[in-house]
Write a structure and sequence with these properties.
globular; alpha/beta; three-stranded parallel sheet; Rossmann fold; 10 helices; 319 residues; binds zinc ion; four-stranded parallel sheet; 10% strand; 7 strands
């Protein structure tokens, strides 16, 4: 039930938002070009598009902050959102299995960019903690590259170049602006990569092992030589068996793994159980597939990465 005071607050908020909106559209009219409407599938991609697009684009995201992309099911409102877009930015690598159906249902006629196009993909790791429950033979390739490539800043450099190119194609007048913005951001990504290397450098090789909720960090692990073991598979939707969890706990003991990290966008119950049974401390929530709100440490891609890296390095060094 909405209380009268809440309703009033909402109304005030809406009025304020409308005022802000009309100020923006006045500004846009003054510039003669309205911002390019772009939809990104999830918040991390949305942040990259905002950085590259700057004031020339208006970005909406389908999967919001702290939301689990693996559990996403599009609503009619999402169909409406993409219908208004000139560009739809997807991660690709089967991260958005719903996208084709949604664009078809919406009758979307705009462009689609697969932001990960041209990256060096890594295969989806078969988590040792998950029993594979496909009901078909598994000796054929079902194209399962690991989708979580944004966890490696050097792969995100490819994303950013792709986004700049796609925006320039739709808005040639903004090409210089997109180039400038993307080049500045590429420097930030390089700085992030340097930051990560420096943060992990003091961690001895034998201690570079971490437990996380689902297999979201394999690109990060490959880039900085860290082994990530996950209680779930590559999707948060996988259900590990009791036997698999017991094996994970045995491995934690054997390898003296010091750090277990939950995620901002999925359940922590399983990890809490693993932590309790293995006696390992649970670390801070890491950002895997979604940004946080503005008042938490993962509100931008760069912020979430620095936060994750710092937490991981501290956790692995712990005695
Ligand atoms: Zn994921």
């Amino acid at each position: 039930m909405m209380t009268p005071s809440k309703r009033l607050a909402l109304k005030v908020l809406t009025t304020g938002a409308l005022a802000a909106l009309s100020a923006t559209s006045l500004l846009a009219q003054a510039q003669t070009t309205p911002p390019l409407p772009v939809v990104a599938s999830f918040s991390i991609l949305g942040d990259l598009v905002k950085v590259v697009g700057g004031e020339r684009v208006q970005v909406s995201t389908l999967i919001g902050i702290d939301a689990d992309a693996h559990a996403f099911e599009p609503s009619p409102a999402d169909a409406k959102t993409i219908l208004g877009a000139r560009l739809l930015v997807l991660n690709g690598l089967h991260f958005e299995p719903w996208a084709k159906k949604l664009t078809q249902a919406a009758g979307y006629k705009g462009a689609t960019l697969i932001a990960s196009d041209g990256i060096k993909t890594r295969p989806s790791p078969k988590s040792r903690a998950v029993q594979h429950d496909d009901d078909h033979d598994d000796d054929h390739d079902h194209g399962d590259a690991d989708p979580h490539a944004w966890q490696d800043p050097t792969q995100v450099m490819v994303y950013v170049k792709n986004i700049a190119k796609a925006l320039a194609k739709l808005d040639p007048a903004g090409a210089d602006s997109y180039k400038r913005n993307s080049e500045a951001y590429l420097k930030e990504l390089q700085a992030l990569d340097d930051f990560a290397k420096a943060a992990f450098a003091p961690v001895p090789a034998a201690q570079r092992k971490v437990i996380t909720g689902h297999q979201a960090f394999n690109y990060l692990g490959a880039r900085y030589q860290i082994q990530f073991l996950a209680a779930q598979g590559v999707s948060t939707q996988a259900e590990p068996s009791a036997k698999a969890v017991a094996q994970l706990i045995a491995q934690i003991r054997k390898d003296k793994i010091r750090a277990i990290f939950p995620e901002n966008n999925s359940s922590t119950q399983l990890l809490a159980q693993v932590a309790q049974e293995s006696g390992v401390k649970v670390g801070a929530k890491l950002y895997t597939g979604a940004l946080s709100g503005p008042n938490a440490p993962g509100s931008t891609y760069l912020a979430m990465m620095r936060y994750n890296i710092t937490q991981l390095a501290e956790g692995m060094k712990r005695n």
